[in-house]
Design a protein that fits this description.
Layout: H1 3-28, H2 33-58, H3 64-91, H4 100-124
Helix pairs in contact: 1-2, 1-3, 2-3, 3-4
Length: about 120
């Protein structure tokens, strides 16, 4: 595996690990429906984007620059988006919810980078 890809594979693995732990905690460790919903939402987004970050490794041959960018955006965006929800649940500090949209923007930027890569590749042919 290429050295540059190892970093985001590890980041995707961390995202996936945390997503599973948060999902399990939301399903079995809390009784408040709002708290469970926040954990479920964070786990769902984080898990999906962990897989998306892994998929970017496979896209490096097609659009390497955009795939690397998208991978990092998915990995970091998943941590910021879901992490802010998890911290909100654990601390009760509501202002942490204001950080969640930053993670969402990073995730959307990751998808935009993939679109950019696909369009740039089609123009290059």
């Amino acid at each position: 595996m290429e050295a540059r890809a190892r970093g985001w594979v590890a980041l995707a693995g961390l995202d996936g690990l945390i997503a599973v732990a948060a999902g399990a905690f939301g399903a079995h460790g809390v009784h408040d429906p709002l708290t469970a919903n926040l954990l479920r939402t964070g786990a769902q987004y984080q898990g999906v984007h962990a897989v998306a970050a892994l998929a970017c490794v496979g896209l490096m041959g097609v659009a390497p620059r955009q795939a690397r960018l998208a991978g990092w955006l998915f990995g970091v965006g998943g941590l910021v988006f879901a992490g802010s929800l998890y911290l909100l649940v654990l601390t009760g500090v509501r202002v942490l919810g204001a950080i969640t949209p930053i993670g969402g923007l990073l995730l959307m930027a990751g998808w935009a980078a993939l679109i950019w890569g696909a369009l740039a590749e089609s123009r290059a042919r």
